[in-house]
Amino acid sequence: MSEAATAEAKLEVKQASKEVKESENVAEKYSAMTVSKNSEMNMGELSSVFSAVATHKPVKKQITFVEDKQEFSRFPTKAGRRSLSRSISQSSTDSYSSDSSDDETSPRDKTQVNSKGSSDFCVKNIKQAEFGRREIEIAEQDMTALISLRKRAQSEKPLAGAKIVGCTHITAQTAVLIETLAALGAQCRWTACNIYSTQNEVAAALSETGVAVFAWKGESEDDFWWCIDRCVNTEGWQPNMILDDGGDLTHWMYKKYPNVFKKIRGIVEESVTGVHRLYQLSKAGKLCVPAMNVNDSVTKQKFDNLYCCRESILDGLKRTTDVMFGGKQVVVCGYGEVGKGCCAALKALGSIVYVTEIDPICALQACMDGFRVVKLNEVIRQVDIIITCTGNKNVVTRDQLDRMKNGAIVCNMGHSNTEIDVASLRTPELTWERVRSQVDHVIWPDGKRVILLAEGRLLNLSCSTVPTFVLSITATTQALALIELYNAPEGRYKKDVYLLPKKMDEYVASLHLTTFDAHLTELSDEQAKYLGLNKNGPFKPNYYRY
């Protein structure tokens, strides 16, 4: 290297060192300004610091910031901060229409008409029908088996003349079922079985097509029963079939409209709570119509109850609390199919899971699956999360809630809101603080906070969503049960509670196998004879436990 080149290189190094030193001085100035406790830095000072950094000239290329002062003065306004806070805290399961300006007005006080001129419905906002239709179209993509059943039976109209009154969760997946029933010839009127689970835009979409829907998210108790009554008690229309989830609709008709109830041709019930009510009526000799217990059908119990809850329990807890599951101590009350699904999911994410049980068989299953079976009082002070899924009442009492640790989460995965003694928490000494949709802090006098989700109602459908494919299995089972009861010859079903025929369970399963490109093995004549089976099923006796 020549002496001239060497000198030039030394000059560049010297200049670069000077640049670095000046930048360090600027950084020191900025640092001193930010850490000083006795002075406040205004926006002009902040801009001058960054301008000073920006105007240093590098050796080869000048770096500039365009409108740097403007960038650092763009802080949210007060209104903007409120909007940002709302967007963060608002539950992602809130209906699209919850942002409408008339959100505080009760749907009962509105006069709404769909595009066909009908006002025989009561939903949050009929104008959201287009958005609800998109939700339904998405659900249809993963409910191919139900759509297949619709196409196969549509020409035969097996439900022609059926007048079905339904009380279920009103979601996009349920809408696919309702529209399938209508395509098969039925007239439908619908209400919600849960005051928090209705998707407002979906209810609007159904109302737009002519289905009489009476439901919206956030109903009061009075609204809930009013909606059921409006579905049942309407001039010129009398139901002859019931599709229920929880038994509230059946109970209302039995008590309020006994003459109408006696003319019902069949009831289809899909929940543990509702089935329990039906068996009570049957045992007392008061059940005057045949009923189908869908909850205990294989395709409902082994798929919806287990696999659906295995995924949706995590979804519901994450959306509402953003909780980290790893290392958390969780107690799951009940180890039926719902409890099994919840425990499996939580264990897979690293939670320490305890189980409470009254049934020695279920308790033994929990032990064999690696869970410690305890009494709730033994762990109540140490657990981070309590999940109930028993179908019972007062599983978690006020005394136990009093002893829970600060920040503990309490939620329910059973159908009814009876499992957690929420009523005992509505007392003057306790403060309720709404955090976000379906999330409340219940605050004790000493400052302890317990996080209560969905006010003790069903967590997954109140606070999140459930897997569409699994709901397709349940919906297809419900549709077939309605078809079977409606078309059954007189005398086949007496005034009692029945399980879905095994052949129908297998048919529902076979419709869904095509989604996985599954190929069933066929029995040879010799094998079928050896087992004493029909080659086309049913393949298991009714007493078989899957």
UniProtKB/TrEMBL annotation:
| Positions of the UniProt region annotated as Disordered | 1-27, 76-118
Q: Name one GO cellular component term.
A: cytosol
Query: Start and end of every S-adenosyl-L-homocysteine hydrolase NAD binding domain?
Result: 305-466
Q: Which residue stretches does the UniProt record annotate as biased composition, category Low complexity?
A: 85-99
Per the record, the pathway is: Amino-acid biosynthesis; L-homocysteine biosynthesis; L-homocysteine from S-adenosyl-L-homocysteine: step 1/1
Q: What is its EC number?
A: 3.13.2.1
Q: Which cofactor does it need?
A: NAD(+)
Pfam families, per this entry?
A: AdoHcyase (PF05221), AdoHcyase_NAD (PF00670)
Q: Which UniProt keywords apply?
A: Hydrolase, NAD, One-carbon metabolism
Sorted alphabetically, which CDD domains does this protein's record hold?
SAHH
**UniProt GO MF annotations:** adenosylhomocysteinase activity
Q: Where is the composition biased (Basic and acidic residues)?
A: 9-27
**Biological process (GO) annotations?**
one-carbon metabolic process; S-adenosylmethionine cycle
The record's free-text note on cofactor binding? Binds 1 NAD(+) per subunit.
Q: Where does the source fall among the domains of life?
A: Eukaryota
The catalytic activity, as recorded, is: S-adenosyl-L-homocysteine + H2O = L-homocysteine + adenosine
**Which family is this sequence assigned to?**
Belongs to the adenosylhomocysteinase family.
Q: Protein name, please?
A: Adenosylhomocysteinase
